[in-house]
Amino acid sequence: MIKRRDFIKTSAALGVSTTAILSACNSGDKMLAANSKLLSQSSDAQEKLPLVISTWNNQAANQAAFDVIKNKGTAVDAVEVGVQIPEADPNDQSVGYGGRPDREGNVTLDACIMDSKGNYGAVTYLQHIKHPIAVARKVMDETPHVMLSGDGALQFALSQGFKKEELLTEKSKEDYKEWLKTSEYKPKVNIELHDTIGMIAIDGAGDISGACTTSGLAYKLPGRIGDSPIIGAGLFVDNEIGAATATGMGEAVLRSVGSFLIVELMRNGLSPADACKEAVMRIIQKQSYKDLQVGYLAVNKQGEYGAFAIQPGFVFALTTNEETKVIDAISYL
Ligand code: SD4
Asked: For residue 26, what are the contacts with CB-CB under 8 A and spacing of at least 6?
């Protein structure tokens, strides 16, 4: 029997569209409808480069990143600058300063960055530092390691000149006190508890880099690490192929190594949107997904982009030379 992967490869060689392949592999009208919508979501490639793309409605972050590229900066500098906008925003309660705390009331941050040369740096469970992405960059650039965690990450940050700060804002403290009344742990599906920024940029030289930063799931168990700082899960970049990033329930993304999977599917010929959809399908085939949100966003070397989520409500921001716009991702449900 022909294996699915061989089928995709063979079909690609025969010039059969990936949409048609996925339609064949996934039965049902819903799938077919989703596939036809996928086509309209891909961009027109090269003329749109350079570009910046990020999860959720992070237009200001995209703009900041794009300004770096416009000034002849690199994609890695662009994403580092871009994601610092929500990190510093007290009203963004899923990222950096103002992030919602864990069950003990501590704000703990996860972040990673990956450049076009395949370098990667990450911090996990970092407290008291407003810009974990900048610390992740230092881990990448200044150490022989790829990931530092907890107090070690904090000590490293302080040694690099970062300032120790209180990250719990009044608003997040109030929300936490409210939560303590029931201490019920029920992550909500979309915006309320998910606003993590995963950003991918393609610079003027055509090089790709990405960054991902979050305060993780609100009221998580102390010590919990999500997908966002983990290479291949929350973010993956391969400068020859493209990049992918994730938002939503990190446990589901981690179990399926979603971002790496998407890049590999693109390597095998799938469009970014179809690859994101396939990564979502891997999750929903294995676990109950009714109350679960995962959203994937991907871009290939040509600048085609796509996204797919389990639930409706996932949006992403795209910035090119022409405009910044927020686009609704299509979803399985
Ligand atoms: C996590 N993926 O820590 C993150 C949460 C998230 O928007 O995406 N929030 O699991």
From this structure: 281
d(CA 274, ligand 1 centre) in Å: 22
Contacts 24+ apart (CB under 8 A), 136-143: 136/111, 136/112, 136/211, 136/213, 136/229, 137/76, 137/80, 137/113, 140/113, 140/115
Choice from 212, 228, 230, 310 to test ligand 1 binding pocket (greatest atom count within 8 A of CB):
228
Closest CA to 316 of 302, 333, 328, 332: 328
- Please report which confidence band the pLDDT of residue 212 belongs to, taking 50, 70 and 90 as the band edges: very high
CA–centroid distance, residue 171 to ligand 1 (Å): 20
Residue 248 beta carbon below 6 angstroms from any ligand 1 atom = yes
Give the span between the Cα atoms of 125 and 225, in whole angstroms.
7
- How sure is the predictor about 188, in pLDDT bands with cuts at 50, 70 and 90? low
Residue intervals of the chain classified under CATH 3.60.20.30 are: 47-331
CA distance 55 to 200: 9
As assigned by CATH, the class of the 47-331 domain is alpha beta
Cα–Cα distance for residue pair 198/245, rounded to 1 Å = 6
∠121-295-9 over CA atoms, to 5°? Answer: 85
* pLDDT per residue as tens digits for the range 262-290: 999 999 999 999 999 999 999 999 988 88
Ligand 1, atom 10, lies closest to the CA of 250
